[in-house]
Write a structure and sequence with these properties.
Elements (H helix, E strand, L loop, with lengths): L26 E5 L5 H9 L8 E5 L10 H5 L6 E4 L10 E4 L4 E6 L2 E6 L9 H13 L3 E5 L8 H9 L3 E5 L10 H8 L5 E3 L4 H10 L3 H14 L2 H15 L8 H15 L3 H11 L1 H12 L9 H10 L1 H5 L7 E6 L6 H14 L7 E8 L2 H9 L1 E3 L8 H7 E4 L2 E4 L1 H4 L2 E5 L11 E6 L8 H14 E9 L12 E5 L4 E4 L32 H17 L3 E5 L4 E4 L27 H14 L3 E9 L5 E11 L8 E8 L8 H6 L1 H96 L3 E5 L5 E4 L1 H7 L22 H11 L3 E6 L5 E8 L10 E7 H4 L1
Parallel strand pairs: 1-2, 1-7, 2-4, 3-4, 7-8, 8-9, 10-11, 10-16, 11-15, 16-17
Antiparallel strand pairs: 5-6, 12-14, 13-14, 17-19, 18-19, 20-21, 20-24, 22-23, 23-24, 25-26, 25-29, 27-28, 28-29
Length: 855
């Protein structure tokens, strides 16, 4: 299982001693479970002392649990650790810990604390804070995911990456992660810059921001931009194409260079040439660059006026005139993490609720990034992401869980998410609407010329195209007409664009490219003649052939192909098997399926085909893969080899011959069998679609069970966290008890070594403690603790103590008297309060000194 790039780069020692500008210091959001104390200790041990950053720790805590995390962390870092307070200005050199019972955020550089309501437990507090941090701090935001349960943090690191910040996730080291769910979920999104051990993260943060102060960043950006040349970019395009299978040469150069600059900054490469060497040597970095190039800023109802126009002008036309058995098909290519998809689904759902018998709706959402699709399928977003969604829509179409919200099941059921490349894979077909917003702005002119005919082909006649506000179809007015220019809504014209086979001139030519390069004006007469001769020879002597995609759609025909194909009635189609003549269709369909599934050469011999003039032609059918250098889509060559010359059918002779009559009967039976087989194939395809729908439903059920499991994991994690802190407190209490026991032993030893008659009394003369000398005077035994001193025989009267003790306690001053008793006994008695005034258990220490023995 691939978790993402684990990047280990050398750290510039000078970077560790750079103090950040106080006006541009980074703010590091740390997500972890409260039980991940060892991971946090390892992180702060590795933070350079001179790194002037602020740190905010977000953990999973129950409202009843009072965390001791600030006290524990204060022992491992010289930074000032404190519990976060609402409205507190974040300052460098400080560590702020989220208190229990709150959801923490940040706005304007100040922390915000929102108390949780009764019986509410926030399951995604890390996502909530990191999203707010990304929106508030932009490129100065740093997201760190340490040990913890659940998938909390995945959306947060995406938000930080979108805003240009730095993201890190913990990998195995001496400090964990003990619970790896959070780091793994973050790494799987592909938005993590560094997967690293906890103690090395501080150095990485310091190295990144040391070279990214505003002045240094501007100067280096200009330098890097000057160093990029066409040859270097071409090689980077080739590396990406060979290792990840996607061609980015169609990207706008400015966009591509900007993303390259960020990767160079993150890995600390020595300029573009150094980064190119890294790409050659490290496939993991190629994957990291690929994911950086895919990052796009998305939001719900982005460009709200455009979505309202779509809801008012297009969606009613799609739904109102359809029966309940009809299906409205919509495609959202490059759907990223699903915000645009769910925005469309909400609009469709709202209109469906106004209809008595609405049609079925299928929204196909595709992207080439599997990790983004995983986030989209979950449908769980911080409420910060819903800023463009009205409270009414949130209440109707979302299930709010604290500061997070999950898309309601009724909306999610309309959407099907799948991996798909709009430039490489075959498009969907018979679509009513294609929403392709903000994809064209990332593509160059050639890539747009490649994409727009594909989108036109995917739409039904008069289907709708919805694009971004910064995009247009001016160069494709032959394919689309304008419905709403301001809100970028267009409608497909009835024109059928010709299919084009890519020229075989080089490895970098994309599929479905233009019609080819025009002839040069300085072509010699001999070259033109050679081209003419070769064209005539190929047309006359080459067997008829066609080129098809892996879906069976023809993209190229040779001359004389019309002998084997015919126009079928109904909607125009480019499916080769559907256009095959009588006697050829079933063999062609089965041969195509076998060749495509096995990627192998398939031959069918002795096939009889009736030509348009009534003659019978015996052919051999050959289907084989067409290997073209640089092709991004599998192609197959279909050749119709004519085995013998056509013959004229002798109908009367055939009818007169019994053998031929039997042959005709068998042919009719075979024809019926073939038709039945075709029906079975169509039923199989229908069943396959239904199975796909059932699979999506099962996937949704699995997601709900996963959510319940995540809640149980979070509860388990809170219990583990509480247990760890209780163990910490218990260890401290044990240490204190041992110290008290030692002190008690020391006091007992001290008392035994002193020949002083002392008795610790309560205000009503009950014994609490006494020395050995006092025991001899009053005849006391160890079991006499708690009894009144007046119950024992004494050489002097004690009744006066009841009057004297309250005065000593009230004034907290010692009292001393000489008391004479019977038989000439004389004692000096000193009374002293043993505790402060107002104590819950006041006491009096009475010292008795025998004056006769001293004399």
């Amino acid at each position: 299982m691939m978790l993402g790039p684990i990047e280990r780069r050398s750290i510039d020692p000078k970077a560790q001693n750079v103090v950040m500008d106080q006006d541009h210091f980074p703010i590091v959001g740390i997500g972890a479970s409260a039980g991940g104390i060892e991971a946090m200790q390892g992180f702060f041990r590795g933070v350079p002392e001179t790194l002037g950053a602020a740190f905010v720790i977000v953990t999973h805590l129950s409202r009843e649990h009072k965390s001791l995390l600030p006290d524990v962390l204060a022992r491992f870092t010289p930074l000032e650790v404190e519990a976060a307070a609402d409205g507190e200005l974040v300052r460098p050199g400080h560590v702020y810990v989220m208190p229990a019972g709150f959801v923490i955020g940040i706005a304007g550089g100040r922390l915000t604390l929102k108390p949780l309501g009764p019986a509410v437990r926030e399951t995604k507090p890390v996502d909530i804070f990191l999203t707010a941090l990304a929106l508030d701090q932009g490129a100065r935001a740093v997201g760190v995911i340490l040990s913890g349960g659940d998938g909390d943090g995945a959306i947060g690191v995406k938000a930080i990456k979108e805003q240009g910040g730095l993201t890190l996730a913990q990998t195995a080291d001496g400090y964990g992660p003990e619970t790896p769910d959070m780091p793994i979920s973050a790494l799987r999104t592909g938005f993590v810059d560094f997967g690293e051990a906890a103690e090395r993260m501080g150095d990485l943060i310091a190295a990144h921001f040391a070279g990214n102060s505003p002045a240094m960043q501007d100067g280096r950006a200009d330098q890097v931009a000057r160093e990029f040349d066409a040859e270097l970019l071409t090689e980077i395009f080739a590396i990406l194409r060979s290792q990840v299978g996607h061609d980015f040469s169609g990207y706008k150069p400015s966009t591509f260079v900007r993303r390259l600059q960020r990767r160079i900054s993150v890995v600390g490469a020595a300029g573009p040439d150094g980064y190119l060497k890294l790409l050659r040597a490290d496939p993991a970095e190629v994957g990291a660059l690929f994911r950086d190039l895919l990052i796009g800023v998305t939001n719900f109802f982005r460009d709200a006026d455009a979505f309202e126009a779509l809801a008012a002008d297009v969606i009613p036309k799609l739904l109102d005139e359809r029966a309940a058995t009809d299906v409205v098909r919509i495609w959202v290519p490059a759907c990223s993490t699903g915000e645009e998809v769910y925005s469309l689904a909400i609009l469709l759902r709202e209109h469906m609720l106004t209809l008595a018998d609405p049609p079925r709706v299928q929204i196909f959402a595709t992207d080439i990034d599997e990790r983004s699709l995983t986030v989209a399928r979950t449908g769980l977003y911080p409420k910060t992401y819903l800023s463009a969604v009205s409270p009414e829509r949130i209440a109707q179409h979302f299930v709010v869980e604290g500061d997070s919200a999950v898309v309601a099941k009724a909306v999610r059921d309309l959407c099907t998410f799948a991996p798909h490349s709009v430039l490489r894979d075959p498009p969907f077909s018979r679509l009513d609407l294609v929403s392709c917003r903000n994809l064209l702005i990332y593509l160059g002119v050639e890539a747009q010329q490649q994409l727009m005919p594909v989108l036109h082909y995917a739409l039904r006649p008069r289907g709708y195209l919805f694009i971004g506000m910064a995009e247009n179809v001016t160069r494709f007015e032959d394919l689309f007409e304008t419905i709403d220019k301001r809100n970028r809504i267009f409608q497909a014209r009835d024109a059928i664009p010709p299919a084009r086979l890519p020229p075989m001139s080089g490895p970098d030519t994309p599929i479905f490219s233009g019609a080819g390069q025009p002839y040069r004006r300085n072509v010699t007469t001999h070259a033109a003649l050679r081209h003419t001769v070769e064209t005539l020879m190929l047309a006359k002597f080459t067997p008829p052939h066609a080129v098809v995609t892996r879906t069976g759609e023809a993209v190229h025909y040779s001359s004389r192909i019309g002998d084997h194909l015919e126009v079928v009635p109904g909607q125009p189609t480019r499916e080769l098997a559907a256009m095959a003549r009588k006697g050829l269709r079933l063999d062609l369909r089965t041969a195509l399926r076998e060749a495509i599934e096995g990627n192998t050469r398939v031959v069918r011999e002795s096939i009889s085909v009736e030509l348009p003039d009534g003659r019978l032609q015996t052919i051999s059918l050959v289907v084989k893969p067409l290997n073209t250098a640089g092709a991004t889509e599998p192609l197959f060559l279909v050749v119709f080899n004519e085995a013998a010359a056509p013959v004229i059918k002798e109908r009367q002779a055939l009818e007169a011959n019994e053998r031929d009559t039997a042959f005709q009967s068998l042919e009719r039976e075979l024809h019926v069998t073939r038709e039945r087989l075709q029906g079975v194939i169509e039923e199989y395809e229908t069943s396959l679609e239904e199975l796909k729908s059932s699979n999506e439903e099962l996937y949704s059920v699995n997601e709900e069970m996963q959510a319940a499991n995540e809640e149980l994991e979070a509860s388990k994690e809170e219990t583990q966290s509480l247990n760890e802190e209780l163990q910490t407190v218990n260890a401290e209490l044990t240490s204190k008890i041992e110290a008290i026991d030692q002190m008690s032993d020391d006091q007992s030893t001290l008392f035994e070594g002193m020949n002083v008659a002392s008795v610790l009394l309560t205000p009503d003369l009950h014994i609490r403690m006494f020395t050995a000398a006092a025991a001899q005077i009053f005849g006391l035994q160890p079991g006499d603790v708690g009894r009144s001193l007046r119950n024992f025989s004494a050489p002097i009267p004690l009744t006066w103590l009841l009057d004297e003790i309250p005065m000593v306690l009230a004034t907290s001053r010692p009292s001393e008297r000489t008391i004479e008793g019977e038989n000439g006994a004389r004692y000096r008695v000193r009374l002293m309060a043993s505790s402060r005034k107002g104590s819950r258990m006041p006491g009096i220490v009475a010292n008795f000194t025998n004056l006769l023995e001293q004399g």
